[in-house]
Every structure is written in C-alpha cells, then in structure tokens.
Amino acid sequence: MENNLEFPENFLWGGATAANQLEGGFDCDGRGLSIADALPSGKKRFEIVQTPDFEWKIDENKYQYPNHLGIDYYHHYKEDIGLFAEMGFKTYRFSISWSRIYPRGDEQEPNQAGLDFYEKIIDECLKYKIEPVITLSHYEMPLILAKEYGGWKNRQLIEFFARYTKTVIESFGNKVHYFLTFNEINSASQHPIMGQGLIPSNGGNDKKNVFQAWHNQFVASSKAVKIAHDFNPNIKVGCMLLYATSYAYNSDPKNQIANLQNNQDFNYFCGDVQIRGQYPAYTKRLFAKYGFTKADLDITKEDLQELKAYPVDFISISYYMSTAIETTGITNEQVAGNLMGGVKNPFLEVSDWDWQIDPTGLRIALDELYDRYQKPIFVVENGLGAKDKVEANGKIYDDYRINYLKAHIEAIGEAIVDGAKVMGYTPWGCIDLVSASTGEMSKRYGMIYVDLDDNGQGTLSRKKKKSFEWYKQVISTNGRVLTSDNLKY
C-alpha cells in the first residue's frame, strides 16, 4: 500500500558505516594506530578510559579489541558494496581512517597504500552509481596525535587536519561531491575521548580543554570548506551533529529554561559556529557555567574571520533517541542513549539497550534545525541496535528494525511536508559492525547480518535480513511503500 508522503526525486537513500567499526586491517599496508584501536570492548569501555591511569596502552592479555578486526571490510568491501547496490543504494556514507592516510598524523607525505584502498572503494561505489559521502574524521584520529600532542586541544592539529583534508580532496574531489568534517562533534560534551582524543590524563576532565578543542576543530572545519571549494566549487561540505531532541519533563518553568539551555549547549552550540560562522549570543553564559571566559581560550581574530568566511554548506545529523530534562527532583528514573543518557520519558518505549524510541522527535529535530539555519539537512545516522536471532531456516526476521526505520522515515516525510529541506537518509550500520558505545557485535544495527560474536569468533559470512528486502522496496518506490505486507523473504 502506498502512502501520501512525497520524497524528492533526487533523495539520497543509502546507508552509513565508519572505518573504525567495520574495516579491520588495523595493521595492514602501513596503517597507523588510531584511538579506536586502543578502546577495549564491553559495556564498561568508557568507564575504563575515564580512569586516571588509562594511557592508550593496548593490553591484549586484559582486554579484547574488536575494532582490530571489525567485520574485515578491508578484505570484503567488494562483496559488501555489491550487497548495498542490490538494496538499491543511491548513496553510501563511509569514513576514511585518518591513520591509514597519515599513520602518525603529523607526517609531511601520505601513505599511498591507504589512498589506493579508498580509491578502490570509491570506484566500486561509482560502478554501481552509488554516490559516496565521506566523513573525514569519525572517532578515529591517529593515536599519536592523542598521546604525543594531547589531542585536539593542541592547535597544531589544525595544520595536520588541513594537510590530511587537502590530500583527500585532491585525491578524490573529482569523484566525490559530499564530505563531512567531524562526526558527532558535539558528543565531546559527554565523551571527549571519541572526537577530541581527550582523557583524564591529558586534560579531558577540564571543560576549558574541551571548548579549546572544539574551537580548533571549528577552525579546521572552515579550512576544510575552503580547501574543498578551492579545488572544486561543486563540492559540498557538511558538519555532523549528534542530535537528541530534548523535552522539558513537565511545564514547570525551571524545567523549561533548563531544556532551552540544554538545547543551546548540546544540540546547537557546535552547529551555530559551523553553520552560522560565529559564536552564538549565549556563549558567555555557557562558558561561565564552567568557570571561564572567552579570553581564557586561544581564539585569534584570524580564526574568527575564517569561521565567518567558510561556514559549512549543509547540516548532517545522527538521530537515535530523544531525552527529557528534569531539574526539580520529582523523578530520578534514568535511561541510556547515544553516548548520553537522560531522564526517562514515560510516553516512550525503549530498545534492548534502553534507548528511548521517538520517531516524532526526528520530525521535531528536522523542523527546528531547518527553521534555525535554513540549510539542507542530511539524516546520516538512524537505526535500532537489537539482538538478532538466526532461525533454524537461516532467516533473520527483524520486524522490530523494520518498524523502527519505517516510523522514522515517516517522520522525515512529515518534516518534508512541513517545509524542511532534507537531502537524504542513510540508516546506521546498514551492515552489522562493532558498536561504538560498547564494542559489541551482539548490538546489531544492520540489514545485513555478519556471522561474528562479541569474542571475535565466527565465519564472517554475510546474510540478508528481512529488513534488507524491506529497505530495497522502500528505495525502489522512493519511500512510497513502507509496509512489509506481502514482502517476499
């Protein structure tokens, strides 16, 4: 049955992955170590990295490191991209491992074997008329830049990132039209290790360092826009935000103002600078909240001019869940979320991993973002982490995933009706991969099953889930058919 939603004819349907979660080949062809390679697996991985004695040392006698293998996409990419093409992908969002191009991050010359690998991936996509969307930095900065340079709080990383970006753009800018700078840049408010390489031992607990690191990334983002536009004016560069629609728990004005400030501080701050090209009016209040002023940061006049001159061309977001803000003490019930938790919303159900499921929150997010910035929005992550079961007949009936994705696609369609300009939709983990938040394989997002368990055991064989056939139908009808009725699987 067709619905009444109308997606643009050039709407970019596809899927999204990240190098550090699926590639593997962590020591192949000259690649250097990244911060992701030093993250142990398990639900307590963030507790481990927050301890004062964590120093990026890889201890295989004590921990497992699933990112080292990923799903061995490094040797399976042709098979995987072929499956994406079978689903009908118009686009594929993937990331480049910075340390595969510059193993240390501070070299003058790139690793050609790394460039060759991504050239093959891009060409494989183009063979199937799949538009590549490349994330330049997705939670995998070279480990040396965190260990020896102290992460993104060091201004030297601006130069290193610019050199890396220039290499990528000059290598692939005639084939790739869309680039994203820093994945979920605002997530550093909760976990600066992922995007900024900051841990307690190098200043990660000091919010001034987090904001200095953000400033350096803002400048680096502007430089990336300039590099891309100078090379090819048709290239579009976007920022990437972790967006979690936020509600006041009730109508108490204390919760209302707390929710307003949560939106400013988390959902909007990084976007305001990268999209509008300047620090927002509430910056003074935000800095004061953590006990410092703008004068305490290394921000130059030239930096501010560069931010203004080279804002991003579009906005991309991840959206998995919403959160509620309660400050008056009437409830302490908490839920988990995408690198952040919050107060439980009594009107929402939760996933197997206790994330609140809220498709209407995505519609609200798109409406609010477009109203605020008036720039195209790309939903580049959205999905359901769940425990999939392979039945005796070899099938995986993941109707729960279909229902989740269907509801969120409907929300996108409604936002388009509302007037939001939405470019495309790339659900997260179109193929099973290692979870960023827990390092598990059992937390599965994909429409393609990979035979691998949390201990790294399995055949690595790929298998289509029911959602594979459903999403194929969604793409082929440009979102007009979202039901799974009469689906052959």
From TrEMBL:
UniProt keywords, alphabetically: Glycosidase, Hydrolase
Top EC class, one word: hydrolase
Entry keyword annotation includes Hydrolase: yes
EC numbers on record: 3.2.1.-
Highest taxon in the source lineage: Bacteria
Entries under PANTHER family matching the protein: 6-PHOSPHO-BETA-GLUCOSIDASE ASCB-RELATED, GLYCOSYL HYDROLASE
Family: Belongs to the glycosyl hydrolase 1 family.
Name of the protein described by the UniProt record: Glycoside hydrolase family 1 protein
